[in-house]
Amino acid sequence: MISREISAAAKVGTQLAVVVGGGNIIRGAALAKQGRIDQAIADYMGMLGTAINGLALKETLEILDHPTRMLSALNLTSVAETFIRGRAIRHLEKGRVVIFAAGTGNPFFTTDSAAALRATEINADAMLKATKVDGIYEEDPVHHPTAKRFETITFKDAIAHNLKIMDLTAFDMCRKHRIPIIVFNMKQPGHIADVVRGVSHGTKVIPD
């Protein structure tokens, strides 16, 4: 499903890069909390999980006849290109979907931070945070059904409301480089392509 949605979004004509996580395979932070494995090693294991997901996404996109390249922050030359900023930009300019795997290549950084870093490096117009919810609410809508959902909100107001959109490092990087963040429900068919087209779904975090 996700491959078809990303393929449809890429065909809109916008350059599209995807940062993959690995939580369905292993979460480094959760593993480290068990106290049996050092957090740095657990985080590297998590990065390898993202490479597995990246390969699966790449192959399914290729099956859908969309050219795709996977760039890894870790040296995995047998299965992926090593991340080089200029190389990533050239792939995007040629109409290929670019998959960024292995996070930042360093332990102690989240997938959010990796996404914000890559968005900054490729001069992205926006960062799309595809989630299971349809935007940002003033309170958790699961526990507060009447909670207000924001259509747009500034970085400054998001901080004032203590809205935990993503980890602070990632959030601050997007704010500093004035990269809007769009939070939307990726499980709704067509939403990724719609957001790429500029159709309003979810919540847009805009520069102050």
Query: What does the overall shape look like?
Result: globular
Proportion of residues in β-strands: 15-25%
- What is the average per-residue confidence, as pLDDT, rounded to a whole number? 92
* Estimated structural class: alpha/beta
Helix fraction, binned, reads: 25-40%
Strand order of the largest sheet: 1-4-2-3
Assigned CATH superfamily of the largest domain: Acetylglutamate kinase-like
Kindly summarize this structure in a few lines.
With 208 residues, this protein is of the alpha/beta class. 39% of the residues lie in helices and 17% in strands.
Task: List its salient traits.
208 residues, alpha/beta, Carbamate kinase, 39% helix, globular
Describe this structure in words.
By secondary structure, the chain is α/β, with parallel strands linked by helices. The chain has 2 domains: 1-124, Acetylglutamate kinase-like (Carbamate kinase, 3-Layer(aba) Sandwich); 125-208, Carbamate kinase, CATH 3.40.1160.10. Helix content is 39%, strand content 17%. The protein contains 8 helices and 10 strands. The chain has a 4-stranded parallel sheet, with helices on both faces. The chain has a 4-stranded mixed sheet with strand order 5-9-10-8. A two-stranded antiparallel ribbon has the order 6-7. The protein is globular and about 50 Å long. The termini are far apart.
Q: How does the SSE layout of this entry go?
A:
Elements: H1 2-10, E1 17-19, H2 28-33, H3 39-63, E2 68-72, E3 81-82, H4 85-93, E4 97-101, H5 111-121, E5 127-131, E6 136-137, E7 149-150, E8 152-154, H6 155-160, H7 168-176, E9 181-185, H8 191-197, E10 203-206
Parallel strand pairs: 1-4, 2-3, 2-4, 5-9, 8-10
Antiparallel strand pairs: 6-7, 9-10
Helix pairs in contact: 1-3, 1-8, 5-7
